[in-house]
Specification:
single chain; disordered N terminus; alpha/beta
């Protein structure tokens, strides 16, 4: 995801105001009795054969290394395809693709024709690649699924193999039960979502550019929604990712003739770059709200009964309310949601200890708010630095397309909430805008509105889905599986 997908209630984000705790506490009284203890999830598995079959699929997928360095997405995709064939899918339903000269970057697209050819297709999108994991850093073997203390530990246990396994398992269960979808259902398991450099090929992007007919759909469900564990168990909110910011990378570069270090000069490339970075550190982009971020502020703010929540509601109604903006954006996570941000993340300079630097560079990572462009962001950086000797260049890092927000469509959001009320009573549904990015950006090129669905939530005690000892609770995995199954089945049949 995710993020990655930075979610407004995601544990990876640092907060000056832990405002989501207030949301959690408010719903805890009404929802706590409905939450099963972690141990109950394991106990129920023994009485549900379908869970055992799912766990076998999930385990095989997680334990297949799909990192960009040494992993093999093509192998993982083939394993899922074999399971689908065993369930009754014909070869014509399965498209195993391998991009040219990328033998380990393959994936799988499943197409299940619906009974009503006029009904818009539904696309289920999940990536099967994972970020790197070094064994010497982990407490447990990162590519072996370990169940311990009510949690599943492994790289990819959460991001995004949990969802990939649930989507695949859903299609298998339909075959076993004789379900016939009304609308065509597509499942795309792709590689390269976690890639951050020019050497990584994004599978979703490759399909959009080379096999668009496999991806075309009326709407798509993807990663990016969720929440985190509430004090009483279960999710604190049902977050639906509707919008996301677009990552763009720039390089600040200063060059100089240099010379011997015994003869310093005032136009030292490092000093000039440092001055530019100091100016950049104070650059604050204007607030840029949209219907998604406004809806989030209004609904999340209404759940709080304090000054901060009131400020969120006021800002949603009037984006020009400076006093409300000052309160809300004092929270680092909310500030990042509501405006474009740019931050220095890399620096390199000089070539010898006894020589004046001939070149100094800094990498700048920007997260651009929906509705703004990379050119506008670059121009703002140049204006803030105000030094023609500091070049602002586009980075060589592979960039995603600019994200487009999906509409706040009641036909999508209402069933998410209605089915959520069945599985997670008392938990509010809130549309969110991510500060990270997912493969939904590529679907924008085909005009496919994409929603990061809830159901799977993270635990605040982890280092994050990209961090050490990645884990997901058995409660989240199994209850999320049941919720996502019901949700996807509803849309397949309606």
């Amino acid at each position: 995801m995710r993020p990655q997908m930075a979610h407004p209630v995601h544990p990876r984000l640092n907060r000056k105001h832990d405002w989501m705790k207030c949301i959690s506490l408010r719903i805890m009284v009404t929802a706590a009795m409905a939450f099963q203890p972690l141990a109950a999830a394991a106990q129920e598995t023994a009485s549900r054969p379908d869970r055992a079959a799912f766990l076998d699929l999930y385990k095989e997928l997680v334990e297949t290394n799909t990192t960009s360095s040494v992993g093999d997405c093509t192998k993982a995709a083939g394993q899922i395809a074999a399971r689908l064939r065993s369930a009754g899918f014909a070869d014509r339903d399965l498209t195993l693709y391998v991009p040219p000269d990328r033998p380990r970057d393959g994936g799988l697209v499943v197409t299940w024709p619906g009974s009503n050819a006029k009904a818009p297709a539904m696309l289920l999108l999940a990536h099967i690649d994972v970020v790197e994991a070094k064994r010497e850093d982990w407490v447990r073997e990162p590519f072996k699924l370990i169940e311990e203390g009510g949690y599943f530990y492994a790289r990819g246990a959460s991001d995004d193999k949990a969802q990939a396994a649930i989507f695949s398992d859903t299609l298998i269960r339909w075959k076993q039960k004789g379900v016939q979808p009304r609308r065509t259902v597509k499942l795309a398991l792709t590689c390269g979502e976690e890639g951050t450099n020019e050497r990584v090929l994004n599978g979703a992007g490759w399909l959009v550019d080379n096999r668009p007919e496999l991806m075309k759909a009326g709407f798509a469900f993807n990663e990016g929604g969720g929440g985190r564990t509430a004090p009483g168990g279960g999710p604190d909110t049902l977050g639906v990712q509707v919008a996301q910011k677009s990552p763009r990378n720039f390089v600040l570069e200063v060059t100089n003739p240099g010379g011997h270090s015994s003869q310093p000069r005032p136009d030292n490339a490092i000093y000039r770059l440092a001055a530019a970075l100091t100016k950049l550190s104070t650059l604050q982009f204007p607030l840029h709200l949209n219907p998604v971020s406004q809806a989030f502020l209004a609904q999340a703010g209404a759940l709080r009964k304090d000054e901060f929540g009131a400020a969120m509601v006021r800002l949603a109604k009037d984006p020009g309310d400076a006093a409300a903006a000052g309160i809300v954006t004092s929270d680092l996570s909310l500030n990042a949601i509501l405006r474009t941000t740019c931050v220095a993340t890399l620096a390199q300079a000089g070539h010898a200890a006894n020589a004046l630097p001939q070149r100094a560079t800094a990498g700048i990572n920007c997260r651009i708010a929906p509705g703004e462009t990379a050119d506008q962001t670059r121009a703002a950086i140049e204006k803030a630095i105000a030094d023609p000797e500091v070049k602002v260049l586009r980075s060589a890092i592979q960039e995603r397309p600019v994200a487009e927000a999906a509409p706040l469509d009641p036909a999508i959001l209402k069933p998410i909430a209605t089915i959520g009320a069945k599985h997670f009573p008392g938990v509010p549904v809130i549309p969110t805008q991510s500060t990270g990015a997912t493969d939904a950006t590529y679907l924008s090129k085909l005009g496919i509105p994409t929603y990061g669905i809830p159901g799977l939530w993270n635990d605040p005690a982890t280092a994050g889905t990209h961090g050490l000892n990645e884990r997901i609770s058995a409660d989240a995995l199994y209850r999320g599986r049941d919720y996502i199954y019901d949700l996807v089945t509803y849309f397949a049949l309606h």
